Amino acid sequence: MRDLPTNQLDPKIKNVWRINDAIWLTVVFLGCFIPFAIAAVAEPAGWIFIVLAAVAIAYVVALVVWLVVLPPIRYVRWRYEMSPEYLDIARGIIWRKRFIIPFIRVQNTDTRQGPVLRAFGLSSVTVATAAGEHEIPGLGMEEAEQLRDRAAELARLAQEDV
């Protein structure tokens, strides 16, 4: 079996994941909690308070899991490597995925940066093929631009060789 890719993401990506996950968990929590809270105010019933407590407990447990437990594991499992022929991406905690993207198949390379990534000085590199897009999140801006440009150049060279 082939060795895992050698390059890791910038360690600041763990904080980006934490912020993104906290936002989504809070939105889901509020979407579940608010209707029951309104129902409890309108017509108090014992079962509604039990549901409210269960939703609040589930929210706290989810926060601990997604903000404390998962980011370090996710960071260790996320790896990438670029060779002259292909881009190799490995990720996943439970369901591990490995993508080998030959540059002959690459149609487009791009960098992306949302507000949270920008706040941490990070970017994501996206490599598009006919089969879909593959993203390498959490690279320093300079490193992301170099990776994007190198992937585009290798894709151009691979197209010329055909």
TrEMBL record:
Keyword field contains Transcription: no
Top-level taxon of origin: Bacteria
PROSITE patterns: PROKAR_LIPOPROTEIN (PS51257)
TM regions (residue ranges): 21-41, 47-70
Domain YdbS-like PH: 76-150
InterPro entries tied to this protein: YdbS-like_PH (IPR005182)
Keywords: Membrane, Transmembrane, Transmembrane helix
Protein known as: YdbS-like PH domain-containing protein
Organism encoding this protein: Enteroscipio rubneri
